[in-house]
């Protein structure tokens, strides 16, 4: 049976337009700002340009102003957007907003969609996802969730401390995960709440100083202290938060991979250009065997990453859980992207270490991906457990 990996004409055309937009408009602005967008002026300029180019919001349905791409379609477009650190912000597909839009479209009520999804999808506002907590709270083990919410009249009172909440600075609202039943260590009893940023019970404590800086709005510590929200703030059903989180987490892992794969390709292009023009020891860098090996290994990592992303997206588009394939893809891609950028920097030598090109910025940005969305070690543990369970099941037949 033939395997057709081609996209529809509409998707292929959007890929081409995104590629041209990122190279012609976004990359120059990214280089001007050193890969870090710090102001609303930069964000709005980028998003206005993306709307003018017809490439804005490829992931949300046309009802909310997007292109309605499935996961396989997103893979190609997001990779092109990810060729620049500013590309995802321009197309409004950066974390955490992209994942929040996906989840809101899937499980929010119609009223919640109009109040939260619509302005988020068109770039009027930003959002954050408040799940991670300081130890011993929820981190790589979401079941360790300690933030709790209790009934209070016609609503809920939330108390807890979150940290590493990406994009919280300037976000119009948070999706907060809090325990509504059970105890820490249980994989049930969590609920998601929509909390407006002007709620006096939600307080931004501090920016966390991190290796990476390109995710807009930073990573913040956030406190929920007697934070009162109405019943209408419940996203989905009470006590079903962990189940709903899977609606977001699997696709979000893949969209992270798609975006960072674009940066791996950018790093490779920079390294290949340098290897083609730089002369050392009487020949071009690219004629040296060790440099050729690094270039080849980058090509292998890029191709393998794209294949694993495609497999996982194919499963997600068919309504499968894709838990194993997304874990495999996320683990491999996070490490492969790092290898690609690291090799590219090595090929460029002192130029790569310098701030004259963005490779050193790319290296700092991609390193945390081996921790974000589940560290590689946690994914490997999950991958192995699924394999062993499958073996046990098959051996008892």
TrEMBL record:
GO terms for biological process: fatty acid beta-oxidation using acyl-CoA dehydrogenase. InterPro entries: Acyl-CoA_dehydrogenase (IPR050741), Acyl-CoA_DH_CS (IPR006089), Acyl-CoA_Oxase/DH_mid-dom (IPR006091), Acyl-CoA_Oxase/DH_mid-dom_sf (IPR046373), AcylCo_DH-like_C (IPR036250), AcylCo_DH/oxidase_C (IPR009075), AcylCoA_DH/ox_N (IPR013786), AcylCoA_DH/ox_N_sf (IPR037069). Residues 10-124 form the Acyl-CoA dehydrogenase/oxidase N-terminal domain. One of its GO terms (molecular function) is flavin adenine dinucleotide binding. The keyword Oxidoreductase applies. Residues 239-388 form the Acyl-CoA dehydrogenase/oxidase C-terminal domain. GO terms for cellular component: cytoplasm. Its cofactor is FAD. Keywords: FAD, Flavoprotein, Oxidoreductase. The keyword Flavoprotein applies. CDD domains: ACAD (cd00567). Coiled coil: none annotated. Residues 128-211 form the Acyl-CoA oxidase/dehydrogenase middle domain. Signal peptide: none annotated. Homodimer. Belongs to the acyl-CoA dehydrogenase family. This is Acyl-CoA dehydrogenase. It comes from Prauserella rugosa.
């Amino acid at each position: 049976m033939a395997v057709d990996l081609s996209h529809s004409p509409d998707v292929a055309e959007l890929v081409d337009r995104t590629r041209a937009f990122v190279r012609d408009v976004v990359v120059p602005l990214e280089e001007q700002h050193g890969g870090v967008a710090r102001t609303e002026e930069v964000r709005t300029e980028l998003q206005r340009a993306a709307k003018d180019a017809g490439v804005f919001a490829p992931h949300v349905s046309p009802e909310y102003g997007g292109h309605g791409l499935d996961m396989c379609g997103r893979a190609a477009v997001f990779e092109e957007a990810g060729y620049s650190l500013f590309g995802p912000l321009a197309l409004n597909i950066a974390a955490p907003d992209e994942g929040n839009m996906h989840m809101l479209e899937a499980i929010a009520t119609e009223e919640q969609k109009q109040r939260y999804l619509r302005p988020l999808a068109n770039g009027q506002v930003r959002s954050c996802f408040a799940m991670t907590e300081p130890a011993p709270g929820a981190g790589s083990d979401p079941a360790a969730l300690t933030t709790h919410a209790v009934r209070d009249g016609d609503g809920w009172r939330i108390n807890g401390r979150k940290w590493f909440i990406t994009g919280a600075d300037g976000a119009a609202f948070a999706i907060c995960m809090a325990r509504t039943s059970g105890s820490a260590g249980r994989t049930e009893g969590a609920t998601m709440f929509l909390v407006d940023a002007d709620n006096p019970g939600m307080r931004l404590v501090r920016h966390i100083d991190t290796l990476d800086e390109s995710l807009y709005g930073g990573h913040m510590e956030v406190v929920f202290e007697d934070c009162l929200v109405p019943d209408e703030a419940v996203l989905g059903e009470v006590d079903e938060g962990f189940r709903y989180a899977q609606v977001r987490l699997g696709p979000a892992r893949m969209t992270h991979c798609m975006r960072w794969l674009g940066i791996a390709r950018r790093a490779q292009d920079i390294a290949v250009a340098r290897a083609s023009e730089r002369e050392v020891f009487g020949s071009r860098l690219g004629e040296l065997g060790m440099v050729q090996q690094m270039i080849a290994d980058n090509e292998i990592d890029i191709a393998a990453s794209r294949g694993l992303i495609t497999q996982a997206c194919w499963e997600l588009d068919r309504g499968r859980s894709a838990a194993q394939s997304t874990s495999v893809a996320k683990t491999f891609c996070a490490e492969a992207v790092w290898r690609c950028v690291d090799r590219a920097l090595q090929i460029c030598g002192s130029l790569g270490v310098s701030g004259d090109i963005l490779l050193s910025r790319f290296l700092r940005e991609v390193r945390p991906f081996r921790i974000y969305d589940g560290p590689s070690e946690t994914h490997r543990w999950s991958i192995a457990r699924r394999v062993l369970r499958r073996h046990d099941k098959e051996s008892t037949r």
